[in-house]
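Design job #97: recover the sequence.
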């Protein structure tokens, strides 16, 4: 299969869908802003397929994600801004520029040296792009990122200039401090202030995960999956008795939860 031919066909189909008078009414009414949520959703579905190790689904989800790129490029072409080919050309040039250890003379670098070189190249690119004006240390972290991921990236950037805890134990102490502050606000009856402190706690927990080389998004996804699995056990056990969770007591459900944990440990 020749990718260039297949991508060309996909571009033609997208153009047909966006053609006034003969295209799809739903596709025609979309804008960059209305399509963004679908783009993010497709990216998450790619990640989900990878997490589940479902490569047949991954193939389909990558196609859905590619459609989002083609969709955005088509709308940009209609406005005379750029075309799909420009997108490909831009990423091709960027990959070559940011990999001098592959395409130029910077050879035999370790993974850490490659990462450092990548950062230097990105910094030079930002310096050459004067249209945005001065950029701070924390610039360039998209607002649309999931909150945990954005917190992690902000902390990583600050850490590179020395604004960081020295060790995980110090961060753990900060987590405990934030918990105490939440307790204080709850005792004072100030729900708004408590909510703010919860944000501080989450930020500190992300920092703790970073110091322990744990991805906070992956850690939370794992815990959410575990919760689903154990709650599913509760539902299944109650269903075997002709009951539903809404008709069970908390003590009953807690006992089944403990049972689910024991089953996991046993096998």
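Job complete. Output follows.
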């Amino acid at each position: 299969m020749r990718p260039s031919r297949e991508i060309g066909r996909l571009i033609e189909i997208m153009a047909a869908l966006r053609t006034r008078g003969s295209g799809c009414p739903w596709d025609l009414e979309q804008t960059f802003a209305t399509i963004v949520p679908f783009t993010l959703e497709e990216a998450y579905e790619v990640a989900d397929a990878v997490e589940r190790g479902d490569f047949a689904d991954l193939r389909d989800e990558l196609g859905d994600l590619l459609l989002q790129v083609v969709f955005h490029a088509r709308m940009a072409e209609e406005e005379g801004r750029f075309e799909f080919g420009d997108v490909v050309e831009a990423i091709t040039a960027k990959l070559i520029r940011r990999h001098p250890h592959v395409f130029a003379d910077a050879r035999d670098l370790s993974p850490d040296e490659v990462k450092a070189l990548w950062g230097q190249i990105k910094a030079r690119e930002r310096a050459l792009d004067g249209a945005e004006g001065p950029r701070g240390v924390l610039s360039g972290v998209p607002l649309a990122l999931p909150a945990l991921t954005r917190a992690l990236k902000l902390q990583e950037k600050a850490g590179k200039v020395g604004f960081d805890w020295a060790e995980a134990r110090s961060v753990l102490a900060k987590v405990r401090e934030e918990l105490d502050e939440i307790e204080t606000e709850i005792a004072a009856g100030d729900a708004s202030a408590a909510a703010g402190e919860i944000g501080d706690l989450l930020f500190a927990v992300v920092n703790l995960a970073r110091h322990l080389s744990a991805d906070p998004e992956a850690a939370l996804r794992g815990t959410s999956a575990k919760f689903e699995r154990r709650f599913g056990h509760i539902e299944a056990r109650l269903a075997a008795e002709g009951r539903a969770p809404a008709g069970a007591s908390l003590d009953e459900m807690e006992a089944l939860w403990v049972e689910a944990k024991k089953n996991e440990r046993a096998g």
